[in-house]
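Consider the following assembly input.
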Amino acid sequence: MRKDGVFIAVDVDDAVVADSALAAKLVEVCPVDIYALAQGPPATLDIVEANLDECVLCRLCLDAAPPGTIKVLKLYDSESVLV
Amino acid sequence: MRFFEYEAREIVKRAGIPVTDYGFTTDPAEARAIAERIGGPTVIKSQVLTGGRMKAGGVKFADTPAEAEAHARAILALEINGHMPRGVLVDPKAEVEQEYYAGVVWDGIRKQPVMIFSPVGGIDIEQVAAEQPDKVGRRHFSNILPFSEFQAKEVIASTGVTGSALNKLVPIVTRLAKLFTANDMILAEINPLGRLADGSFVALDAHMDIENEARGRHKPLLADLGVGDEETRQAREATPFELAGEEVDATDHRGVAGNVTEFDGNLGLVIGAGGGSLTLFDAVRAHGGHPANYCEIGGNPSVAKACGLAKLVLQKPGVDKIAVMMSIVSNTRVDIVARGVIKACLELGYDPAEKIAIFRIPGAWEEEGFKILEQYHVEYADRSVSLNEAARRAVEKIGADAS
């Protein structure tokens, strides 16, 4: 699942979206509420489009998920990926 | 926050400084009762937070209680400079032999209170200072250490006051200094301070202004005086534009993006950081620019909040461009503010490169911010460009003469 803001886009692997426990963890770690739980059951991950541009590039979501399953893209920088 | 005269008199009275046997009321019939209690000629004074009461007819003398009631009725209905009176103060018409001035004001440059005393009272102290400078005594003092009677004596004596008057004035001036520091005031003024026929002194009028940020520390006093939390007591009511700025700031706890003051120029300002707002505002004016507003942004507001503030300023009638500028170096993230102001332009259908005259925020995440600004072709400057130069460029871009 990928959603775009004006400056930031987030691309999450489908496996992560479907993982309720991981989804809950992402909701917990993001300081600017980019992640939310979609109505279940089972609860899945949703991306709050309105909050995408609030991303502070803190990498907490990248650390919480298996490597390479979440991509934070800077749309203002040729879609460079936050690593 | 300014106090009405009747409140200031109460503060003076509580500090142990003699006051007249006045009364405050909102009812003409009660004004009559107060005048009867006083027994003798009275002065009826409008209670408004503006000057020019006497000239506007807001101060009248009454020889009888019936006259006091009639004057109170007229004054209560009299608007002065756009202000309706809170009530009237009924004061005995004192037989004053001489009017003095005693005041304490916060000196923002010295960061200390300054005691000012003059044996010429009843008129503006600025006028006395201009016309009879030798009749104005001044002394800065610590707002931590107590103001001593000796210091008071020095200030008073420097104006030529001696003898019994000097001795009687010392405790009054000392108590005035004490009430100033104890109540976190920025102005505490007794003018006139009258000397009566028997040689005693009495405060005939008082003006007090408390530091807004200190209101929380003085809740008991404010409650006693009946000052509600909702009373801002500003010099003028906030404009819809300014109220909208407060709403923007209240949308999110993160950072500051508000404290907007409306002006009538064409250059919108999104400015802030560590006193930078004032400096930048002045710099824009010094270069012939016409600010559309003052505001404060900093402390890492959310993108939405920065966007909200920028949108508010951009939509203000008459605004051609905005200048986004901050102090020397700030801990506010440059990229976050850049996103906010660019988003504001985009959401309003403007080209950011066209609408943002200059973006100069030296601070955290500069490089990331500059990438965003470059993407949208917004002119920006780093810390090698001074505040003054940034303001000059903004004014140049909008045209100094356009307004």
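Chain B has three domains: 1-20+95-234, 21-93, 240-398. Ask yourself how this observation constrains the way the partners meet.
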